[in-house]
Design a protein that fits this description.
Elements lengths: L7 E3 H10 L5 H4 L12 H4 L1 H17 L6 E6 L5 H10 L3 H6 E6 L3 H10 L5 E4 L10 E4 L10 E6 L2 E8 L7 E6 L3 H7 L9 E4 L1 H15 L9
Parallel strand pairs: 2-3, 2-5, 3-4
Antiparallel strand pairs: 1-7, 6-7, 6-9, 7-8
The chain binds S-adenosylmethionine (SAM).
Length: 228
């Protein structure tokens, strides 16, 4: 990484840079999942996890009168393992298999490639924006998605609020520092005075945006589930 000019990034921008920078990003370089990677998630420990989700989807879909068409959207599909097992499970239930539009919303091009490799014989649509989803009943799945989104941090000292930043002027010696901030902007994002009784606030602006977008879809009488 070359850092010639002054580079100060808020914590969420720094995390986003670390995860998704085209050259150095954690999710851009390789497959971090599984025994040969850095960590294991529930779908990669046992197929039972995804099979149980599949059975829940089938029974819920039936309880709604088995709509002829519905979307199943996975947010942040990692190495594609959960989607693979869901589809394999649905193959024992042809009516739901034929009714389901399988959709993945994934940020990392590297992981999309891995997902496409694993799911090459399956009919799946990859979408970059949630507003591209067809307006029919929809189920959202998100395993370890919301907790993987970058966060911002704020602290109060002597009645003043500060936001955490990272300085990257010297690539060999990055360091954290705090910058005075107007906390009212954060209160406005929350829609209430969160700062009133707090000395420390940590939240994900991206997570907020997703919840807002998903809430709009749910309000139109669509359904969803989030697993974490
Ligand atoms: C911790 S991994 C979990 C992967 C998978 N759900 C599992 O349980 O194995 C987080 C996933 O969310 C994806 N992701 C993170 N932020 C995203 C965003 N803003 N839009 C789409 N995908 C995102 C990551 O690239 C990664 O695939």
């Amino acid at each position: 990484m070359k850092t010639k000019k002054k580079i100060n990034l808020s914590l969420d921008k720094f995390i986003d840079f670390c995860l998704y920078n085209k050259k150095f990003g954690y999710y851009m370089k390789r497959n971090p999942f599984g025994a040969k990677g850095d960590f294991v998630t529930a779908p990669n420990i046992s197929r039972l996890f995804s099979e149980m989700i599949a059975i829940w989807i089938i029974s819920f879909w039936r309880s709604l009168g088995s709509p002829k068409k519905f979307n199943l959207i996975e947010l942040g599909a990692g190495n594609g393992e959960m989607m693979k097992i869901l589809i394999e499970s649905f193959q024992n239930f042809p009516s739901i298999l034929n009714s389901c539009n399988f959709i993945i919303h994934e940020k990392s091009p590297r992981l999309i490639k891995i997902q496409k490799g694993k799911l090459k014989k399956k009919k799946i649509i990859w979408i970059s924006k949630l507003n591209k989803i067809k307006k029919i009943p929809s189920i959202f799945l998100a395993n370890e998605f919301f907790d993987a989104l970058p966060i911002r941090q704020f602290k109060k000292e002597n009645n003043l609020w500060f936001e955490k930043f990272v300085n990257l002027d010297n690539k060999k010696k990055p360091f954290y520092f705090y910058k005075k901030t107007n906390i009212k902007n954060v209160d406005r994002n929350f829609g209430f005075m969160i700062s009133k009784k707090q000395d420390f606030i940590e939240y994900s602006e991206q997570g907020f945006c997703y919840i807002k977008d998903l809430s709009k879809i749910i309000k139109k009488k669509f359904w969803w589930i989030i697993i974490n």
